[in-house]
């Protein structure tokens, strides 16, 4: 079981991170509509949970999911998200790593829980709307998207929404994980891929 | 054709160092996504929007450069003269659309340019020079190589689904997602296996220092561009 970390694992990381990122990006596109932005942490993990579960089933070594989280953090930073994204991404990655480790990288149950802990990184995307970042971020949005849009956005995001979003991430991740487990069972186990 | 990090070496055009491209990419996305549209930042935005256009011309992607300029021009035109004259829901939708285009498209085009004009070998060598550990560079290069393939796979699967008349109705999004995502995931697993087999034959697992034949060096104009992007970032944070 405890084999060395191989190049093969790194390639798996690369390919699945690309898939995960593409799905996340596709879902995030609907996040520009103000009301969906609030539910992003719920809707996102439901869809991304499916590829994530397949990825988890391929993970055999400590550190792979952490690398994924670092890569996502770098990509997100390059596409213009503020720096707290690093803290959230890497934190969520390490947490997921521990959860998966607890299940010895085999138990489906810990994979489902891992799916919900990993989706906590989405909070790093929306942190700009809350706490100390709120004012300056909303101001920077005004001339890009217009006052009307910003008013809508700030109306939807009082501070308590942030804590609801944490719950949304976890619930969405759980649903996504269960959905992913079901898909794996239905399609991949039969084909002998997992 | 669409194979991501392309290996075409065009000797007639001066090639930028991958590190310079990364510098520019970071500067452009920081400024375009977060910037305001007044004062000094407006000038920075104009410069940043122009960079991908010029760079695309230097690698002779004239068609994509023209599409890029038209898209950007259209959104600027809409922001300037259409949006103030309408109100209500159309205003909001147009505003968001234009906001997205003018914010994300320049960074996206720069990223596209970076991917298209850098070979995997160049990228790896440049990262090696920057002392980025290999467990970051390998997944990264695999990723950039895989993104265009993902698009291709998606299109083929979409066509296949169309032939069987699945996915036409939006009645049940979950069915559509299952029918598209599962084949993509299948091919992802297959491609991962194939890539690791390829890397095995190339001796990536053998350890030892990686050698290369591509020439990577930071030249005068690389320094110039890096300095330029640094100045832009500094200006961006000061103002």
What does this protein structure show overall?
The complex is a heterodimer of chains A (194) and B (239). Chain A has 194 residues and is mostly helical. Chain A has one domain (7-185). Chain A is 78% helix and 0% strand. Chain A contains nine helices and no strands. In chain A, helix 1 packs across helix 3. The two termini of chain A are 16 Å apart. Chain B is mainly α. Chain B has two domains: 18-123 and 217-238, no CATH class; 132-206, no CATH class. Chain B has helices at 18-34, 39-58, 62-82, 89-117, 120-129, 134-163, 173-201, 220-238. The longest helix of chain B is centred in the middle third of the chain and has 30 residues, at 134-163. Chains A and B meet through helix 1, helix 2, helix 3, helix 7 and helix 8 of A and helix 1, helix 4, helix 6 and helix 7 of B.
Topology of this structure?
The complex is a heterodimer of chains A (194) and B (239).
Chain A: H1 7-28, H2 34-58, H3 64-78, H4 84-102, H5 108-118, H6 122-126, H7 134-145, H8 147-156, H9 159-191
Helix pairs in contact in A: 1-2, 1-3, 2-5, 2-8, 2-9, 3-4, 4-5, 5-9, 7-8
Chain B: H1 18-34, H2 39-58, H3 62-82, H4 89-117, H5 120-129, H6 134-163, H7 173-201, H8 220-238
Helix pairs in contact in B: 1-2, 1-4, 1-8, 2-3, 2-4, 3-4, 5-6, 6-7
Give the tags:
heterodimer, A: 194 residues, mainly alpha, 9 helices, 78% helix, B: 239 residues, 8 helices, 73% helix, flat
